[in-house]
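hey
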């Protein structure tokens, strides 16, 4: 058995399809977001502008977040020292869970080491606890939800993206007596569209299903206190479980669910991905706590982000660039070819000091490869104009323009 050859061939397949992943080696400059240094070149670090960060609001560099993390580090040290059950249940964890429960208007919340783990652990455990459960899953759901659903062992029914009629058709066809769970996202992070949450809750009521909403790309950014689209649309109380991350708009790391006390208790007690792992560092939890509290009270970052996204979409559209129809802060440009998407990204970095990662399969369906820009409150007009000019030049150079 030639193991090395099998691995090498797997890598060769990625190269052949133009989707071999290259991680760009960067350091962000604290206090100067979105400026960073890139270590790809030969002559030491090169200054770049980051256009693809999920630290959407630059909270990862916010003075109150950094101060809280420094204070925690000096007060209690680096790590938690244990699982939640065995020595790792710090007071920071308890406080943050209360803060997150309040953020979503739920009785309780539960922290995980990442948003991925929160989805995987919660969905797999729920599915195992509900005998005969059928899980209805939006076709564009994140890999972490898909992994959880698979591990649950439940029957899975995939409904077409945001398609209420299709979801209802599948719900109606299922046995009325089996448990049902509808799993979906609020903001879909690659297209930037939003789920019809209230309508999905109506269907859940009609067919007696529970609901699981991933608000990873909305928490901190939508709603008066950053509670996500479910807060903005005043439907949080209708959802059974809301899941979020502390690693994107909150700028730190970790994931969570918020739900009623019973559900949180059952996940806390049964989910291996929660139980058998060291709890988050108290330093991270302290930073996340400061970030959640700040964004509950301040809307300036959210407003700045919305304004930047609207402006960048307009600038792209005016320049004739193929900006996709996003209704949120996500600004995707369609390329439709993995090799070209990578090529554009390479030229931007090498020649223009612009960092935007190409998005290829399996993150998006084949043939819809794209560049995904995430402007935030610190991306200014001059940066946007320079970016659009660079893109127009590259689009022309690669003959990507559709003939008029
Ligand atoms: C990033 C992401 C996650 C995972 O969150 P992490 O905290 O990064 O692990 C879950 N769901 C969606 C939709 C995501 O985009």
């Amino acid at each position: 058995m030639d193991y090395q050859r099998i691995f090498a061939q797997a890598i060769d397949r990625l190269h052949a399809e133009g989707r071999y992943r290259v991680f760009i080696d960067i350091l962000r400059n604290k206090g100067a977001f979105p400026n960073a240094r890139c270590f790809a070149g030969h002559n030491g670090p090169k200054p770049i502008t980051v256009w693809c960060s999920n630290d959407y609001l630059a909270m990862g560099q916010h003075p109150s977040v950094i101060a809280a993390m420094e204070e925690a580090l000096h007060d209690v040290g680096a790590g938690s020292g244990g699982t939640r059950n065995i020595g790792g249940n710090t007071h920071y964890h308890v406080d943050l869970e209360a803060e997150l429960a309040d953020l979503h208007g739920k009785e309780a919340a539960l922290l995980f080491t990442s948003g991925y783990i929160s989805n995987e652990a919660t969905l797999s455990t729920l599915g195992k606890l509900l005998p005969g459960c059928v899980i209805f899953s939006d076709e564009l759901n994140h890999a972490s939800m898909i992994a959880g659903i698979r591990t649950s062992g439940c029957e899975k029914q995939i409904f077409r993206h945001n398609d209420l009629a299709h979801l209802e058709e599948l719900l109606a066809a299922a046995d009325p007596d089996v448990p049902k769970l509808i799993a979906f996202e609020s903001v879909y992070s690659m297209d930037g569209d939003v789920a019809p949450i209230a309508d999905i809750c109506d269907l859940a009521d009609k067919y007696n299903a529970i609901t699981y909403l991933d608000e990873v790309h909305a928490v901190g950014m939508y709603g008066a206190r950053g509670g996500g689209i479910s807060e903005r649309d005043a439907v949080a109380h209708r959802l059974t479980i809301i899941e979020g991350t502390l690693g994107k708009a909150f700028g730190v790391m970790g994931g969570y669910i918020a739900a009623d006390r019973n559900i949180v208790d059952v996940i806390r007690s049964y989910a291996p991905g929660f139980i058998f792992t060291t709890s988050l560092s108290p330093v991270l939890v302290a930073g996340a706590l400061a970030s959640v509290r700040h964004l509950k009270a301040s809307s300036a970052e959210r407003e700045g982000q919305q304004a930047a996204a609207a402006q960048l979409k307009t600038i792209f559209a005016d320049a004739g660039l193929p900006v996709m129809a996003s209704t949120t802060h996500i600004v995707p440009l369609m390329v439709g070819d993995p090799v070209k998407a990578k090529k554009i990204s390479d030229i931007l970095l090498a020649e223009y000091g612009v960092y935007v990662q190409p998005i290829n399969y399996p993150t998006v369906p084949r043939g819809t490869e794209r560049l995904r820009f995430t402007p935030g409150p610190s991306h200014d007009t001059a940066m946007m104009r320079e970016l659009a000019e660079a893109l127009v030049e590259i689009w022309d150079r690669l003959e990507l323009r559709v003939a008029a």
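The pocket of pyridoxal-5'-phosphate is lined by residues 114-116, 119, 142, 144, 185, 189, 214, 216-217, 245, 247, 255 (CB under 6 Å). The chain is about 45% helix and 15% strand.
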